[in-house]
Amino acid sequence: MRIIDKYLLKEFAVPLMYCFDAFLMLWIVLDLFDNLSDFIQYHAALKDVFRYYLIVLPEAIVLILPMSLLLGVLFCLSNLGKHNELIAMRASGISVGRLAMPLLTIGALATVVVFGINEAFVPRAKERADAFMSILRGKGEKHVLENFFYFNPSDRRDWYVHRFNTHSGEMDHVEVRQQKPNGTPDLEIFAERARWADGKWTFYNADIYNYIQTQPTTVRVAETNFPAIKESAKRLAVEARKPDQLMTSELRRYIRLQKQSGRRARLAEYQVIHDYRYAFPLTCLLVVWIGIPLGMRVSRRGPMLGVGMALLLVVAFYFMSNITLAMGKGERIPPLLAAWLTNAVFGIVGGVLLARVR
After folding, report:
1. CA-to-CA distance for 150 and 134, rounded, in angstroms?
2. In the beta sheet, which residues pair with residue 221?
3. Whole-prediction pTM value?
4. CA 152, 119, 106: angle at the middle one, nearest 5?
5. Spatial contact of 351 and 290, defined as CB atoms under 8 Å apart
6. What 3 state SS string does the chain have?
7. Angle at 256 (CA atoms; ends 255, 261), nearest 5 degrees
8. Which structural domain range is residue 122 located in?
9. Tell me: the pLDDT tens digits for 146-190?
10. 234 inside domain
11. Domain annotation covers residue 47
């Protein structure tokens, strides 16, 4: 690393940290105003509020880091231009590409960091945050799903559970309905309780209706299990989550199984979210890519112009991104295009601006 690289990174690090802290505080304040009525109404303790914001912190970092990078680049280059340091660097024979290298490297590293956080922490953070608010409002318990429903299209089997503890694998008031290929009933189980253990479901105090014979038979048993019912508690817990609460590997598996079974209802939403998991982290590199030529253009006009341009770009980026994602989920455009179109447009714009920098 040359001296100029260290100097540029040092000049970039300070505004980046200030911008990140400012955006984080702003995000927390706005979210607090949004949830303050619930915190007050349900008498949330200060430690509970603090724990809630620790839960949602990964999502906040993922959303804030790209904006902080963009504003940090603009402040950095504006400050260098204000003191004629950019002119001195260019006059000494240093190209724009060479000046951009350390900043783009930070953007690339931030892309990796955001992808890792978005994959490892954000989906579970969303699930835990929803569970926290449900517990606070008295509508649920941690790891407990109320009125759970799942349809297994490949095995033609419906599940309806009044109460499902995804942590212990226990269910209360369970209904399982197996259908024949022609859609008529094959087997129905109505049990007071069920439990997943040793790779199988055990049903307790169950009424079993068997439609295999001409005359349906009814059996009442205190305890039984069906090896053919292969949905594990972990799989059912995954199926119960919202698309944005699933990890990328779980999204990929769900999409594959739905395609194999020929069931494509709401599949576009899962595909869009899956593809966007790869597209969004590149926003960190993209904002640096755009911020470099913009920062050099406004370097002599003061930082406030850069701030205004940064805010305009952020609004335009997220507006276009939300529009394309909504169109993808609504099957108006292909999911891959919905996830990557915004990145492609702003990447081209950044390339044109960078090529025109003298």
Report:
1. 21
2. 206
3. 0.75
4. 160
5. no
6. CCHHHHHHHHHHHHHHHHHHHHHHHHHHHHHHHHHHHHHHHCCCCHHHHHHHHHHCHHHHHHHHHHHHHHHHHHHHHHHHHHCCHHHHHHHCCCCHHHHHHHHHHHHHHHHHHHHHHHHHCHHHHHHHHHHHHHHHCCCCCCCEEEEEEEEECCCCEEEEEEEEECCCCEEEEEEEEEECCCCCEEEEEEEEEEEEECCEEEEEEEEEEECCCCCCEEEEEEEEECCCCCCCHHHHHHHHCCHHHCCHHHHHHHHHHHHHHCCCCCHHHHHHHHHHHHHHHHHHHHHHHHHHHHHHHCCCCCHHHHHHHHHHHHHHHHHHHHHHHHHHHCCCCCHHHHHHHHHHHHHHHHHHHHHCCC
7. 100
8. 3-131+272-355
9. 777 777 777 888 888 888 888 888 899 999 988 888 878 888 899
10. no
11. yes
User: Does the structure show a pLDDT above 80 at 226?
Assistant: yes
- Sign of dihedral through CA atoms 151, 155, 157, 162? negative
- Identify residue 286 by its one-letter amino acid code: L
Question: Domain count of the chain?
Answer: 1
Residue 251 is assigned to a structural domain of this protein: no
Highest mean pLDDT among 80-94, 168-182, 235-249, 267-281: 267-281
| CA 269 remoteness from chain centre | 13
Query: Within a domain: residue 276?
Result: yes
The two tokens of residue 358 are 């003298």
Tell which residue, 262, 43, 38, 41, has the closest CA to residue 154: 262
Dihedral angle at the C-alpha atoms of 238, 244, 249, 250, nearest 10 degrees?
A: 20
d(CA 143, CA 164): 8
